[in-house]
Amino acid sequence: MSEPSTTHPAGELRDLLGESESVTILCHNNPDPDCLASALALGRIAAAAGVDEWQIAYSGEISHQQNRAFVTLLDIDLERFDPATARDRPDGELLAFVDHSIPGRNNRVPEETPVDIVVDHHPAEAVDARFVDHREAVGATATIFTEYVRDLDADLDADLATALLFAIRRETLEFLRGTTRAEYEAAGYLHERTDTDLLRQLATPSVTGATLDAIATAIDNRRTRGSVLISHVGRTTERDALPQAADYLQTLEGVETAIVFGIVGRSIHLSGRTTDPRIHLGDALDDAFADVGTAGGHQDMAGGEVPLGVFADYTADDEHLLAMVEAVVSDRLVSELRLSEDSSG
Q1: DSSP assignment letter at 124
Q2: For residue 160, what pLDDT is reported?
Q3: Residue 126 Cα distances to 12, 139, 143, 199, 201, angstroms
Q4: pLDDT confidence band for 153 (50 / 70 / 90)
Q5: pLDDT score, position 6
Q6: Which CATH superfamily is 9-203 part of?
Q7: Where in this chain does the record put each DHHA1 domain (predicted)?
Q8: CB distance 68 to 62 below 8 Å
Q9: Pairing verdict, β 267-274 and 294-297
Q10: Cα–Cα distance measured from residue 244 to residue 81, given in angstroms and rounded to the nearest whole number
């Protein structure tokens, strides 16, 4: 198993890329700015290393209005990922993960698929690849790629600088969450190279009516137990409304932890935020739902996905389905977080 690089990781990455003919840079499901900017930076590094062909691929959906704006304004060329191509790659073709690290977790890569490159900052165990730079301490994967670009003296035009800076700002909630000295150093390096008008456009995308409706539903359905708020958005097509609702509800007076869930397609999605130092939200969600789905994340922000499975087959009545999902998910959260049964709206 490869270990994270401790000396000159940028040079090691460049050398590995230089041995290859092509690289597929795979984003995680529903890629966000940190993932997309990191993929863009890796593509530039690959091109500079002499890689003939590189592509950015993704699974899932790009549904958050900010993520869609990011792709459009930066003109990022994305391709849909075909899981069937992951295992039987021709010699000389590399598979790279950015902002995620384990096959089958937050991606549609078959488990046990060999991975060549992993660069990530999310908590994970047993990360295995030919090149691994896994730094849980830093606040954004884009911070790591900014270091690479600087160390390799790679081409850093205004678009890439803006993408990386916006990603760092967004991932750290404007330097208020999980920020280290590395984020400030990266931002200082990127600042003078950034297109400020483009940065402003990225920060202020329009919001869809469906997103507002989902957030409003979460507000209406909120229940609090002490400093913990649990709510749901019902059924929605706006997956990324969940973290937006969690961000908003976590600011409610007296609330330290907000967890929002909802049905998207044939899965239950969860998103949580906390400022309570006694709770590691990623571990809590993993413990609560690992037996039925996938969940995890950082101490202060986390998410998860649980297939509807038998729920969807049990009833065709959407209202009944929502009631069952609400009961089961809420009970698991109440049990895992050891909350009292007393609640308020």
Answers
A1: -
A2: 97
A3: 20, 20, 22, 36, 39
A4: confident
A5: 42
A6: inorganic pyrophosphatase (n-terminal core) (3.90.1640.10)
A7: 227-315
A8: yes
A9: unpaired
A10: 26
Structure tokens at 215: 């957030």
Across the chain, what does the average pLDDT equal?
91
Angle at 243 between CA 287 and CA 335, to 5 degrees: 30
> CATH top-level class for 210-336?
alpha beta
pLDDT tens-digit readout, 207-250:
788 889 999 999 999 999 999 999 999 999 888 899 999 999 99
Domain extents in the chain: 9-203, 210-336
Per-residue pLDDT of 183-205, as tens digits, reads 999 999 999 999 999 999 999 87
Q: What is the pLDDT of residue 4?
A: 42
Sign (positive or negative) of CA dihedral 311, 312, 314, 319 = positive
DSSP-assigned letter for residue 138 = S
Q: For helices 158-171 and 196-203, give the axis angle rounded to 10 degrees.
A: 40
pLDDT in tens, 27-60: 998 899 999 999 999 999 999 999 999 999 998 8
Q: What distance in Å separates the CA atoms of residue 179 and residue 216, rounded to the nearest whole number? A: 30
* Backbone torsion region of residue 177, taken as left when φ is above 0, otherwise alpha when ψ lies between -120 and 50, otherwise beta: beta
Cβ 64 vs Cβ 240: under 8 Å: yes
Using CB atoms within 10 Å of the CB of residue 206, give its burial: 0 to 12 exposed, 13 to 18 middle, 19+ buried: exposed
Per DSSP, 254 falls in state T
